[in-house]
Design goal:
Elements (H helix, E strand, L loop, with lengths): L5 H12 L3 E5 L2 E4 H17 L7 E5 L4 H12 L3 E5 L5 H11 L3 E4 L4 H5 L10 E4 L16 E3 H4 L15 E6 L9 E5 H17 L4 E4 L6 H10 L7 E4 L5 H10 L4 E4 L1 H7 L14 E4 L6 H10 L4 E6 L9 E2 L12 E2 L4 E5 L12 E6 L16 E2 L2 E10 L5 E6 L4 E3 L2 E3 L1 H9 L4 E11 L3 E10 L7 H11 L8 E4 L13 H9 L7
Parallel strand pairs: 1-11, 3-4, 3-5, 5-6, 6-7, 10-11, 10-12, 12-13, 13-14, 25-26
Antiparallel strand pairs: 1-2, 8-9, 14-15, 15-16, 17-18, 18-20, 19-20, 20-21, 22-23, 24-25
Length: 517
């Protein structure tokens, strides 16, 4: 039996690191040994509930130790983790339950009503587990589906590891669905072990021993951080936030003398609204940024206000086990998402699949051990060809192989025959001192095909108008790029993982957006 699996890797890491206080959560430290023991006991409880190798277990929780315990238990029982961010709607949850065929749900008491409203469309679900469920929490509506308390299910003796091979499925992730219905992305044990090893190398080189983690563990980026920790041999510590709160992040980073943190650009933007200079962040050295492009103005301001810190951009996507490239710690290039990680190949291709030379924009294509074998329940999605994944992102490399992400291919605006990348326009708008958020989409236009439309949020007390912002953009962009329409809104819509929600922006184009008052 090929023992290349996540449960074995977690066990090896525990043996090397020893039992120590590894996870802080809401005022309490949890030791690595106690977390592993609870996971082994939950694995036994899952087996008693009839969970078999290959069964999907859907996890719908805010960040908490039980998320990590559930993942480890599922892998120990040879089940498949199906994580969903707790912000999903009932429709999205119903779709994931039906599409995955999950046999059970692990959630928390506050989400039981949401789960209850979806089980009518999920006949495969046989049980629901939730901490505190036995204390009077409402149960699902469908008869025959018991709601079990988390501690009750973990009361059995620890279960041994049920081995799986590297090619067996370990996780079934669902895409954000920003351009359509979410798709299932199956990732194997070997894929996640590979990306975890690569992520570990990046983190270790940065010298990060204590890190604040606000990313949702149910997101692919958060899962990458978790898998990276399985490869560490030192006693690294994680300060886990239930969810991201800018003031809370600053407090925790200072209190725990954190050396690092993994963030997304919208989180970094929100941190700029905090009095960073008044907090002791002198230990903060490495901030990793991923999931979306980071505006250059945001990077410069953060690094100026936290002089000890350097932001390192990386790049990945769910379909490639979340990791494609990262900036070397000793050779960062600002604006670039770095070099392909070892074992990963990147090429820039035109629409016909021909490779393009450095400096030329095209679709980013990837080949690595982390790339999925295809979408769940789809025979041919058109994104895989000859082992290469067509990411749908537009970018280019420089002469030294550094990768630059320009924009999403589907977000490209065609105005009068010219290409307009929303990020180019957004970066210019964000350079205006009054603008804190910017989002750009195309509006159908009978003469030009599409017109450039921008939505912006302003800093408190800012004194500027839409006309001022249009003029600012006109001075800094080519004539075909600057927006002819700018709407000031209270805040831009974000997806559940902090990315700009362009689908919602496109709805605002054809309907009145919220007023900034």
């Amino acid at each position: 039996m090929d023992r290349q699996n996540l449960a074995r890797q977690a066990e090896v890491a525990l043996e090397k690191q020893g039992d120590y206080d590894s996870l802080w959560f809401e005022g309490r430290w949890h030791s690595s040994g106690s977390l592993a023991d609870r996971a082994a006991r939950l694995a036994a409880g899952l087996a008693d509930l009839g969970v078999r190798p290959g069964d999907r277990l859907l996890v719908l929780m805010t960040n908490c130790p039980e998320v990590l315990i559930s993942y480890s238990a599922a892998w120990r029982a040879a089940a498949v983790v199906t994580p969903l961010i707790f912000l999903v709607t009932e429709d999205e949850l119903r779709n994931a339950l039906a599409d995955s065929g999950a046999v059970g749900v692990v959630t928390t008491a506050e989400f039981l009503p949401k789960v209850a409203g979806t089980l009518d469309g999920a006949p495969a679900v046989r049980f629901v587990i939730a901490p505190g469920a036995a204390a009077g929490a409402a149960g699902p509506a469908r008869p025959g589906v018991p709601v079990l308390d988390f501690d009750q299910v973990t009361s059995a003796g620890p279960a041994p590891i049920t081995d799986r091979s590297g090619s067996d499925l370990a996780a079934l992730l669902y895409t954000g669905g920003t351009t359509g219905r979410s798709k299932g992305v199956p990732l194997s044990h070997a894929s996640l072990l590979w990306c975890g090893s690569a992520a570990h190398e990046v983190t270790v080189r940065a010298g990060v021993r204590t890190a604040v983690l606000p990313l949702p563990l149910a997101h692919a980026y958060g899962l990458l951080v978790l898998c990276g920790g399985m490869h560490r041999t030192d006693q690294a510590r994680t300060i886990l936030m239930r969810w991201f709160d800018p003031a809370g992040w600053v407090k925790l980073a200072a209190e725990h003398r954190a050396q690092g943190s993994a963030l997304v650009p919208s989180m970094i933007q929100m941190l700029l609204g905090q009095p960073l200079e008044h907090a002791d962040l002198s230990e903060l050295a490495a901030v990793s940024s991923g999931a979306a492009p980071l505006p250059e103005e945001v990077r410069r301001e953060f690094e100026a206000r936290v002089p000890s810190a350097t932001i390192y951009e990386g790049y990945g996507c769910t379909e490639a086990a979340t990791l494609i490239s990262a900036n070397p710690r000793d050779a960062r290039r600002a604006g670039s998402v770095g070099l392909p990680v070892p074992g990963c190949e990147v090429s820039i291709c035109d629409d016909a699949g021909r490779m393009l030379p450095p400096g030329t924009d095209g679709e980013i294509c990837v080949r690595s051990p982390g790339v999925m074998r295809g979408y769940w329940h789809e025979q041919d999605s058109g994104v895989l060809a000859g082992g290469w994944l067509r990411t749908g992102d537009i970018g280019h490399t420089d002469a030294d192989g550094y990768l630059y992400v320009v924009d999403r291919k589907k977000d490209l605006i065609l105005r009068g025959g010219f290409n307009v990348y929303p990020r180019d326009v957004e970066d210019v708008l964000l350079a205006h001192p009054a603008v804190t958020q910017a989002g750009v989409v195309g509006r159908p236009d009978p003469r030009l095909g599409q017109e450039v439309v921008a939505f912006v949020a302003l800093s408190p007390g800012a004194d500027t108008t839409a006309g001022d912002l249009i003029e600012h953009a006109r001075r800094h962009l080519a004539a075909h790029k600057y927006p002819r329409q700018v709407s000031v809104v209270p805040a831009l819509p974000l997806t559940s993982v902090g990315k700009l929600d362009r689908k919602k922006l496109r709805e605002w184009v054809t309907a009145d957006p919220p007023s900034a008052g």
